[in-house]
Amino acid sequence: MVTIYSSPSTNCSGLFSSYSNSSSIGFYNYHNNLPISSRNFASHKISLQINAVRMQDGAVVAPPSKTQDETPLKKLKDGILSKEQKHIFDFDSNKDKSTVSITVVGASGDLAKKKIFPALFALYYEGCLPEHFTIFGYARSKMTDDELRNMVSKTLTCRIDKRENCGEKMEQFLQRCFYHSGQYDSQENFAELDKKLKEHEAGRFSNRLFYLSIPPNIFINAVRCASLSASSAHGWTRVIVEKPFGRDSESSAALTGALKQYLKEDQIFRIDHYLGKELVENLSVLRFSNLIFEPLWSRQYIRNVQFIFSEDFGTEGRGGYFDHYGIIRDIMQNHLLQILALFAMETPVSLDAEDIRNEKVKVLRSMRPLQLDDVIVGQYKSHTKGGVNYPGYTDDKTVPKDSLTPTFAAAALFIDNARWDGVPFLMKAGKALHTRSAEIRVQFRHVPGNLYNKNFGSDLDQATNELVIRVQPDEAIYLKINNKVPGLGMRLDRSNLNLLYSARYSKEIPDAYERLLLDAIEGEHRLFIRSDELDAAWSLFTPVLKELEHKKIVPESYPYGSRGPIGAHYLAARYKVRWGDLA
């Protein structure tokens, strides 16, 4: 085995310094035929200086002095590597000659236009993409390169702090964008794409990323064709898969099994864009790097935890898709459960992706399967407000008139481990509610023997400390504390210690897709979902989903623009909890 000591690389604009590694020139452990991690941030060239070489017997030797014709790296390579290994070495040690080809499969869809292409441009604008990269759109629609560029250009925006060269950067980015029309189940069409990719890669060491922005029923066909006909011959090939990852445990397992016929687990990046949001990313920092929080993070001090998601609009013509899944599958089983796992996990061994995901899986496996008695479902109905009539869910022409699909759900979950035993974790998610928000609310226990109880009257909940992490909009972290109002009397008030991101930080917060796309390019799995994690998540929700459908449970109606069904309040009250967003 050979170990190379090299100088560290520069991170991309400081975005992800929390898990930056020293640079690697992509050496392989030839003794065990396993790759050592290779990372290359942005377009910065890696300057490699070999200080020492540790041989397999443990001896450390200095490299030979450089001559006019031979570098120490070349001598090392010629002396210990086989012909095949030299070929791999030549590709991997010339990072400035490598390229990344990004193919957006389903490029004509809304997700690609509104999120993926703008995120890729933002990464380019910040200097976070490699020096050599190409972006291809792939879809069934007939389109030229110029037509794709015109479509993409309408959705691109520039960073507010670097607007002066926006037009120039945008034009440079669009010149890297190309289009190929083809069927998702055609190996021949993907082979044609492969030919075009090779032309643009121009003999460089090629790495390829495929983003599947397509319906889940055609995932497998696209993966099969891309894997067999358009994989990289020498570098890595990775695939980003959008949710939903099935409808239940069985369909999810079948999807995973089918994907693994063509890809290894480390090639699959199951994306949940909520894990890329700034405040979700900050959860572990808040908890593990601040002494005041970690000792309080348990059943001893926390009375309940609430994960709340609300949208102030309905299905808006997407009822056909939504009616097949419903709010539990669309929001609770993935977005909110992933945040819960990050919130409740034990301290990981390190910030390595596998260490973090291992702890998340432990949390999910410690949770009780959800019971029907601990679930409330609702469906919004039409409502007139301010002279405007808002349609009900079944008024959507793409939704069956007799649909029982919930547009609102509330649930109480429990983690049966030493840290969280008996603490209710309440989830609430809904469409067509009174506001748009996503937040985590941590309600602490009452102060035992509180000297100031008489100042709060009979409602002790008003005196409860509460930590609120607002994920969106207007990202913020604030702590509710009790405070004396200035004056001669003893009057108490509830005040907020507030960190409002827009006031504290001048830099615009990156979109979640920017962070996740960059992670996928770098091979960082920390914010992506592993297959066993997905299995554990579905095992919690599948039984209650089947029971809801088998018993044809009728959702409780609630008016469009209201705070949701009354049943959600009764569910919280059963566990002596009051929803924090309604206070």
From TrEMBL:
Alphabetically ordered keywords of this record: Carbohydrate metabolism, Glucose metabolism, NADP, Oxidoreductase
Reactions mediated catalytically: D-glucose 6-phosphate + NADP(+) = 6-phospho-D-glucono-1,5-lactone + NADPH + H(+)
Pathway(s) of this molecule: Carbohydrate degradation; pentose phosphate pathway; D-ribulose 5-phosphate from D-glucose 6-phosphate (oxidative stage): step 1/3
Residue intervals of the Glucose-6-phosphate dehydrogenase C-terminal domain: 285-579
Highest taxon of the lineage: Eukaryota
Family annotation (InterPro entries): G6P_DH, G6P_DH_AS, G6P_DH_C, G6P_DH_NAD-bd, NAD(P)-bd_dom_sf
Leading EC class: oxidoreductase
SUPFAM superfamilies for the chain: Glyceraldehyde-3-phosphate dehydrogenase-like, C-terminal domain, NAD(P)-binding Rossmann-fold domains
Domain Glucose-6-phosphate dehydrogenase NAD-binding intervals: 104-282
EC nos: 1.1.1.49
Family from the record: Belongs to the glucose-6-phosphate dehydrogenase family.
Functional description taken from the UniProt entry: Catalyzes the rate-limiting step of the oxidative pentose-phosphate pathway, which represents a route for the dissimilation of carbohydrates besides glycolysis.
Protein name: Glucose-6-phosphate 1-dehydrogenase
